[in-house]
Write a structure and sequence with these properties.
With 395 residues, this protein is an alpha/beta fold. It is built from nine helices and 17 strands. The strands form three sheets. It has a six-stranded antiparallel barrel with strand order 12-15-14-13-16-17. A five-stranded parallel β-sheet has the order 3-2-1-4-7, sandwiched between helices.
């Protein structure tokens, strides 16, 4: 049996994950990660997964299971790999996916590295609803959870093969009611604890507060224009306060409903469109990665996949092809051509490729003008930030 580190958030899922690891005869080591200081300053976060109350719940569960428990400070790693890219994305008119970065760079980057080198652990187990399966060639595959409503593989697409080999997902074959029942049978103090739904470092669920407090963002009014003709129809309070697909809070009345279709932070302009204007059968992704290290091998480099552009969104069949035909692409750029239209493919969101139940990989949806934006190469992100690259390699 193996020595396995369990990332314990203080919630029921990670508590049961720890219990199952121990039940299987492994030597479980519980760790709660301190990732930021938000709960120190905002009273409404005292019950969040990153608060000291959550740490106390995790400690109490570890005591019930009779496993060692530690607190690990990963604030620096979280800041470099998750928080700063999150702020940069909104300031650049993109919609970030912080949970993807947290899993890739922190939980299965920095935490996995420390688990193996400091605690002599073979693997890291989490409370994710996902499955790790072994293919006929011995390589690891990331597969959807049995509980499709709770499946979290969308947020795990960035894992490399070497990371997945040392990842364990004890809840992958269970559904949520079964997890609750196991916790109750064991008498765990977290058995009936409500789930945390908010982004763990965003006070009150409003990301604008994080922009103000941590990036010095100030509301700077600018024009709202309608459609491609650019007719000015109103004024917004600051481009970073809006996301593609947003309808509420625009302050305009134009008869038919309007949605944010484009955000240009360089000119501080918000462009609106009708719902059909936000439909597309083609978009580009960048910084793509594949779980087995490379895309499916085909004669022309393209492959078929089901593509999901939001967590829990219905996957849509598509053809994925290299952005530069016949040429190496160091930016990990691919073009996705969907069989049916997708709505509001927002720059920055993750697009994840599936082959049935198996995750092939994914990338971030690009801005339509990414190649020509003068600041495109100067704004740091999680892929190029030195500290984040170091985290990704640390496992």
């Amino acid at each position: 049996m193996s020595r396995i580190l369990v990332a314990m958030s203080g919630g029921v899922d990670s508590s049961v994950a720890a219990a199952l690891v121990a039940r299987e005869g492994h030597e479980a080591v519980g760790v709660w990660m301190r990732l930021h200081d938000v709960a120190d300053s905002y009273s409404e976060f005292k019950k969040s997964c990153c608060s000291l109350d959550a740490a106390d719940d995790a400690r109490r569960v570890a005591a019930q299971l009779d496993i060692p428990f530690y607190v690990m400070n990963l604030e620096r790693e979280f800041d470099a790999g998750v928080l700063q890219p999150f702020l940069d994305a909104y300031l650049d008119g993109r919609t970030p996916s912080p949970c993807v970065d947290c899993n890739t760079y922190v939980k299965f980057g920095a935490l996995l590295g420390r688990a193996r080198h400091l605690y002599d652990c073979e693997a890291v187990a989490t409370g994710h609803y996902a499955r790790r399966v072994v293919a006929s060639d011995g390589s690891a595959r990331l597969a959807r959870a049995v509980d499709t409503d709770k499946d979290q593989t969308y947020f795990l697409y960035g894992l490399r093969q070497d990371q997945l080999e040392h990842a364990r997902f004890p809840l992958g074959e269970l559904n949520k009611p079964e997890v609750r029942e196991i916790a109750r049978d064991l008498g765990l103090v977290t058995a009936d604890k409500p789930e945390s739904q908010e982004i763990c470092f965003v006070p009150g669920g409003d990301y604008r507060e994080a922009l103000r407090d941590r990036a010095g963002w100030q509301e700077t009014p600018g024009p709202i224009v309608d459609g491609d003709d650019g007719e000015r129809v109103g004024e917004h309070r600051g481009a970073a306060a809006y996301t593609v697909g947003q309808r509420q809070g625009l302050g305009v009345a134009l008869g038919a409903p309007r949605y944010v279709s484009r955000i240009d932070p360089l000119t501080n302009t918000i462009q609106l469109g009708r719902r059909k204007d936000l439909e597309t059968n083609e978009f580009q992704v960048e910084r793509a990665s594949f779980v087995v290290g490379s895309a499916p091998a085909t004669a022309d480099g393209s492959f078929r996949a089901d593509v999901r552009i939001r967590h829990r969104a219905t996957p849509i069949a598509a053809t994925v092809r290299p952005a530069t035909r016949g040429e190496p692409d160091r930016g990990g750029r691919w073009v996705v051509e969907t069989d049916a239209p997708v709505w509001a493919a927002a720059p920055g969101q993750a697009a994840v490729f599936y082959d049935g139940e198996v995750v092939l990989g994914g990338g971030r949806i690009s801005r339509p003008d990414a190649a020509t934006r003068p600041d495109a190469a100067t704004r740091p992100d999680a892929a190029t930030r030195p500290d984040a690259a170091e985290l990704r390699a640390s496992a």
